[in-house]
Amino acid sequence: MSAARAELADLAGREYAYGFSTDLETDFAPKGLSEDVIRLISAKKGEPDWLLEWRLGAYRHWRTLDEPTWPNVRYPPIAYDDIIYYAAPKKKPALSSLDEVDPELRAMFDKLGISLAEQERLSGVAIDAVVDSVSVATTFQAKLAEAGVIFCSFSQAVQDHPDLVRAYLGSVVPPRDNFFAALNSAVFSDGTFCYVPKGVACPMELSTYFRINAAGTGQFERTLIVAEEGASVSYLEGCTAPMRDEHQLHAAVVELVALDDATIKYSTVQNWYPGDAEGKGGVYNFVTKRGRAAGARSKISWTQVETGSAITWKYPGVVLQGDGSVGEFYSVAVSAGHQQADTGTKMIHIGKDTKSTIVSKAISTGHGQNTYRGLVKMLRSATGARNHTRCDSLLIGGDCGAHTFPYVEVKHPTCQVEHEATTSKVSDDQLFYARQRGIPEEEATSMIVNGFCREVFRELPMEFAVEAQRLLSVSLEGAVG
Amino acid sequence: MLLIDDLHASIGDSEILHGVSLEVPDGEIHAVMGPNGSGKSTLAHVLAGRDPYEVTGGRVIYDGVDLLAMAPEERAAAGVFLAFQQPVEIPGVPTMYFLRTALNAQRRARGEEELGPVEFLALVDTKRRLVDMERALLDRAVNDGFSGGERKRNEILQMLILEPRLAVLDETDSGLDIDALRVVADGVTTLRGPDRSALLITHHQRLLEHLVPDRVHVLAGGRIVRSGGPDLAVELEAHGYATLDSPAVEPRTASAGTASIGTISTGTISTGTISTGTISTGTISTGTISTGTAR
Amino acid sequence: MTAMTRPATARRPPSGTGVGMGVQVPERAREPEWLNAARRQAVAWVDANGFPSTKHEDWRYTKLDSVLALPLAASSGRGAEDGPGSVSSSDLPTPQLGVPRIVVVNGGMVPELSTLGTSLPGGVRVESMAGAVRRPEGRFQQLWTRRLGGYPHALRALNDAEALDAVVIDLPARTVVEDPIEVVFVSMPTGDARWSHPRLIVVAGARASATLVETYLSVAGAPSVTNALTQVELGTEAELVHYVLQGERTDSFHFSSLEGHLAEGSRLSSRLLATGGRIGRHEVDVVLAGEGSQVDLDGLFLTGAGQHHDNPVLVEHAAPGCTSRQLYKGVVTSDGHGVFNGHLVVRPGADGTDAVQVNKNLLLSERAEVDTRPRLEINADDVACSHGAAVGRLDPEALFYLRSRGVPEREARAVLVSGFAHEILERFGSGPIRRHAEELAAAAGLIVLDEDHCSSGAVTAGTVHPGRGGRAQ
Questions:
Q1: What is the pLDDT of residue C86?
Q2: Residue C421 pairs with which residues in a beta bridge?
Q3: Which of A1, A47, B64, C170 is deepest in the core (most CB within 10 A)?
């Protein structure tokens, strides 16, 4: 980091701790997007023809689409032809153990606080690490295989489990779903695949760390998780990126499928580089995440803590198809500096007696703009469906904004929807009470804000909850006073 | 310990304290009594540094330093504790966590070592028994869903854990049953010592039956109008505040009265009350609204 | 989008003179050049921007296709002298609320049917556009052209372009009008000409206060399209209590907009009861422009077979220390479709904002639908804003409780629905305005609870308040 940059970071009062970049030897595709680039990506990965055709179909459709303008965010036009759509660390042997991982790469993960080997030994969490769109290391595969759980990179799944991939790919987020989903479908380079067979409770937490490293690249990963009848799995993802002056595009797709009585819990701690204090640089996080609670009594739960990215545009949703299925969305979104977030969820109730819960906590500070946008839709078939939504926004400072845009659409009288929301600043009374007990203002604010988010944090697995609280405190540094 | 000298304080454009003077020497407990609206709570808040009360004159010297120049947390670290009349809820922040953060912040500010989790737990366990509080209550968020009595006990627990040198109790006794009142009295007594003082702000003499103060001051109309020994409290209980000779009371009460009439008429208008008396004539009187304002 | 054509129907002035004191005869005066220019500009705006579709966020749930299928020509018939099919006093609601009543047919003020009586304080002016344009102050021009070029959608522009007349109520500073001023809008198609564009302008000077009641009716014949605009301009500490009773025929189309501009310390209370219209869209657009101003907005929409009610309510806090309250309730039956589109905006610097926005809806049939969108857009930090929305059916427990006490299910349901609606209806006061509202609600099928029974908390099956007069069909 240059001296000037360091100074800026100090001025902003919040330093991005993951802003280093690592000198990995990287294999790039040429800049820009064309059918040739897609063919190149597909060939690099040795994909079957059906997948290449699938990508090309998505690409041709994408070309007919316009970038959406309805989100409550502002950014200059993205030059899609200046993006490198494929970048992979060059040394990419087939790994049989962690010892074979590129030492540079391992050093990078150590710096991120994710020592893969340590994590594997100590926490018993299986990790897939994705750098610049390519999965570089997956741990614990053998142990998971014993339980019948498949957890591997997407590319590997295409090679080893083509039927499963073909059956479920695009079944929740079709390639034509939206502009960014179509783009992802055309160029996705890797991601994570997870399959939990009938009746199996996945024996450990599964986790992917995503990292954008190379300059001028976008990251377009794809995650697909399938839980068969009676299966259950908890999956975590964490994201970081280096500090770079230019904006980096991250357009991922996540698809979840839960069959009868299956449960999928998906947690995200998103800390992509948010840009500097002037709003320069930072990741555009335009992501489509959706779960299909396909089976009766299935359950899909999203928990997200969004502290990073210059712009966030994502609505992890659940299509509640199976009778008695359950959808949940717990979210903390922080917009500090010049960050903009337009995020929320979509709960589409189709099956009978389906139930959804939405808890959204938004925090705006600095020049941050935070929009909750959520759709609760109850179709005529969703008799006895229920939703409860609670959206609270906290404003710290007079230059930020907090917006709440719920959409509630109900087509049957036995459905019940309740939506509540509040917007306020940190209470003077609470702040004074804490300060009277001797807690300095900044710490008191951070404590009150953490309390505000607690309902969401407690949905996270323990290590992530601690990480999330820490990230939140870092985001709020300098927000007070 | 504490010297308040000709203290003037206001909120917005109205001055509430018109020159309060009193002194609390080391080791003494003083009571400040007074009728509603006399400025008692304002005094408590000014001592603790609450916005938006503005000090417009006078000084407050605590242990030889200017208390008014310090931030609220600095006052706390220096040993000034305010037991709130209405303890604040902080949703999502467990009481235990809050207490430990507060204690360690104060210790840090004083250059003392922070207390580890184990020692802290032991400390809380000892103290909470003194105020008769269940451990489970401390795992809940600060004052969140606490009953009135539980909140006041929580204030006293915090006082016992933070061990202030000057405790200011703002009507901590109001609305308490006899058991809780004893908890408050015992709490203050526990802390009593040659270098600790307390200022009890109260409307009633009730607390003073359990906790005999060294001095009693009567605050009325924003000034101390009388000071005396413990007998003064008994006298007030017998004769009430009405017998006090304080010209300063009058204008304040009057202005408060005007303000409240204004509030009432605002309420009438915003709910759009329409005169029921005019139904028979088949017209609806908007006059109700305008006379409401003028009244 | 084809270019809009000006209506072919001639604008004929009615004969006769005003019977009420102070009512100006609406003359077919040559319009001043600024007004002609404004009309041309509004037409150009519609040509350039077209009509809104469901792709517009504010029109997401309301389709205009069936309205736009009708010719755009504006009706002009005005009343008694027009012969058969014209409006007569028997078409109007009885009794009159107070003394001042202004009757507007197809947007034109009809003096023969209007009375002002002697109760209006001196200085209060109620006049038609012809009178208003002649006033030297130029205030009418300023109000008329406030939106010029910046319309939220084509229907507002269309009112500027096409409004045949306007009713202008001018309350000088410190005037207190005791009697409610009633404005009855009647829509009556003449041949192919279906549209009317009523315009009402209320200007209240500092500390003036008044009550205003707008009643909308359509008379038998072909379905009409009402596109009304009411502008309310409140001066410092002025107060207006405003009611809208929308009881048009259920095959008509009703679009209305209330634009409010509130100066320092002023207060606006506006209450809507909507039962009519195949489409009924009741926009409210209030700017709290002066410090400490307050607005209370309440609405009850009873949406039945074949009906669609949309309630876009925009409240903008543009100054510090303002208060706003919104409470809208919907009762949707049959294949009705109810929409609440609340939007609260807090501008930067509007500190001390206190705002609450609530929408609750009852769905009473398998085919009924509700969409609700309570939006908060907040750009200042010292605020306390909250909103809530609920959609559901009658509480089965309450229903069971009533039935266990011997109330037959049908009545029990009716009683619960009435209880739900009561919270809004009681805000219509306790005098004749309340009775008008209750009659309208009863005609739409709502059983209106008696005041006595509600206040005592007793709920019995016998509390039916029979509506007088039928629903305008």
A1: 66
A2: none
A3: C170
